[in-house]
Amino acid sequence: MHEFEEVNESDEYSFKIRKKLSKCSHIIHLVEEFEEKDSKYYISEFTETDLLKLAHSRAGHVLQLQQALTYFSRLIEVIEELHCNKLIYRNIRPEKIRIKDN
Questions:
Q1: Where in the chain is the domain with CATH 3.30.200.20?
Q2: Strand locations in the chain, DSSP E?
Q3: What residues contact residue 17 under an 8 Å CB cut-off, 6+ apart?
């Protein structure tokens, strides 16, 4: 299953970066891109939720320690991959961290 995202020109750069980093297993991969009229669309892997929604769905709105450690170790791997490619991501927020599996 895939997600459809409508993007504007400011988003286009981030999608080029995602395409470049497609070898990193913790970055959501782009499947296809296409244009229609005045819009450009990108099709990416399906993600079930984001970290914020996942935390809010748990009792007390917190993750279990082991689950949190798993997600944050993956996040560190992504940040390391970005830094190896001389990139800095300045907008890390729980709602921006997409979860592929629960």
A1: 1-46
A2: 2-7, 30-36, 39-45, 49-50, 98-99
A3: 87
Query: What span, in angstroms and rounded, lies between the C-alpha atoms of 79 and 34?
Result: 28
**What's the CATH code, domain 1-46?**
3.30.200.20
Q: Rounded distance, CA 20 to CA 40, Å?
A: 18
Q: Is the pLDDT of residue 3 over 60?
A: no
The answer to whether residues 40 and 11 touch, using CB atoms and an 8 Å cutoff, is no
Q: What are phi and psi of 74, to 5 degrees?
A: -65, -40
Q: What is the pLDDT of residues 12-69, one digit of tens each?
A: 777 777 777 777 778 887 788 888 888 888 888 888 899 999 999 998 998 999 999 9
